[in-house]
Amino acid sequence: MVDRPNKPSALTSTPAAPPQAQIDITHNHSQVSAVLPTGESVEVLLHGATVVSWKDAAGAEKLWVSETASLDGSAPVRGGIPIVFPVFGSAPDHEPTSKLPQHGFARNSRWEFLGKSTSEGSSSSVKLDFGLSSSSLSEETQALWPYKFGLLYSVTLDRDSLNTTIVITNEGDVAFDFQTLLHTYFRVKDITSVEVSGLEDSPYLDKVANSKEETQSSLVTFSGETDRIYTPAKGPKHPVVISEGGAERFRIVRDNLDQVVVWNPWVDKSAATKDFSPKDGWKNMVCVEPGSVKGWQKLEKGDAFEAAQSISLP
Ligand code: BG6
């Protein structure tokens, strides 16, 4: 074997491991934060497993959270990504869920942090897992909805996306019905220049007009209180895109979630909502909420339902 004249010298130390996402558990174990080595970050409150912050590498916040949101567990968080389960809104005529609070109990329960994992061979993503089960609910809530269930919620932060996945399991002996939704509050600069695409030709229920059935003819724009339940015609993989002034801001793809709720409370509803602040905050937010909220999903004993939203930045 010929000896090479410019043979590299032997390594004196093992190469450094790729930088790992930094995980901080802060606020007396009430919040989990993760920061990627490139600067992107996410913060999740154990209360409701609510994502309360998602920032890009430049530190720009992507989610809207009210300045007076309760973050201490006394009420659902007004903003971020609350989880709706097992009922969307209220369902006085659906006996099993009729006694539950608006949007169910998941957003108002303390979840457990189950741990984190980073994507193999890469430092660019981190997954945070959270769990809630019937046994960790208060006795009062268990009495209102006496089913045995498990919820696993995973929040995955990538350099230019956030993915949240929910797995619902029936751990009891009887089937139960549920609805679920990921109530994402997106931060925008000016709601009057926001357009939502991907819902064209889709039927929707207009909750502002007594749940009248309509069909979306073009892009969704905002000029007053908006509260609509869309069943997108093109299916979950077709992206729903939030643009501002013609520039794309967020691209949302769904998995196993057949509806998209679009909500902006505008002037009067914001004024009437105690924890909504500042009062003109409606100008800076739009909720685009993937969910399964028309009719009921029935989960048989031992079965699981998995669903997700994936939000990408341009
Ligand atoms: C939306 C509903 O998903 O949530 C609206 O479509 C509702 O009707 C809104 O007003 C906020 O609900 P809450 O319970 O957080 O005030």
Question: What does the model show?
Answer:
It is a single chain. The N and C termini lie far apart (53 Å). It contains two helices and 20 strands. Strands 5, 10, 11, 13, 14, 15, 18 and 19 form an eight-stranded antiparallel sheet that branches. Strands 6-7-8-9-20-17-16-12 form an eight-stranded antiparallel sheet, with no helix packed on it. Strands 1-2-3-4 form a four-stranded antiparallel sheet, with no helix packed on it. The radius of gyration is 22 Å and the shape is globular. Helices cover 4% and strands 41% of the residues. It has helices at 139-144, 266-272; strands spanning 22-26, 31-35, 41-45, 50-55, 83-84, 112-118, 125-133, 149-158, 161-170, 176-182, 185-187, 194-197, 203-206, 212-215, 226-230, 240-244, 247-255, 259-264, 285-299, 304-312. With 314 residues, it is mostly beta strands. The structure holds 6-O-phosphono-beta-D-glucopyranose (BG6).
Number of E-type strands: 20
Percent of residues in beta strands: 35-45%
Distance between the termini: 53 Å
- H/E topology pattern: EEEEEEEHEEEEEEEEEEEHEE
Unreliable stretches (pLDDT < 50, length at least 5) are 1-12
Overall helicity? under 10%
Rg over CA atoms, rounded to whole Å, is 22 Å
Helix/strand/pairing category: mainly beta
Task: Estimate the global geometry from the Cα principal axes.
Answer: globular
Query: What is the number of helices?
Result: 2
Mean pLDDT: 93
Largest sheet data: 8 strands, antiparallel
